[in-house]
Task: structure prediction
Amino acid sequence: MFLKIKIPPPIIVIFLILAVYFSSNLTIGFDLPFKKTISLLLLFIGLLIIFIPVFQFIKSKTTINPQSFKNVNNLVSSGIFKISRNPMYLGMLIIISSTVVYYFNYFSIFAPFIFYFWINEFQIKREEKKLEEKFGSDYKKYKSKTKRWI
Result:
């Protein structure tokens, strides 16, 4: 039942960032030293980690759309995909974390965990099932050598 929930990951990211932003007015915040610098650094790293695999997918002529498996025609396992099977989701998690650092409060601490749980349960498990169906033993080998996140 839950595997049928299909909310695009960027929508989850936007929702969590907005929730962190609006919660900053409702809960006690904590001042972190260099929070703007750390937040911007994390944002930059997160964006970089998202765009590198996007270019790899484009180069491999496969889709970046996690909702449509019909257009997945290549298993990309080189470059950043040697380190993480899900670098785009890792980048999104880092972007959420950058927001957490900037608006650090009691609610914001939970946002990365909510994202991690949601993406694992409702996105990655479905993707892995589809990739195993499509690429069989090649995907199973890749999966055994490369961690889901890092």
Remarks:
- The first helix runs from residue 9 to 23.
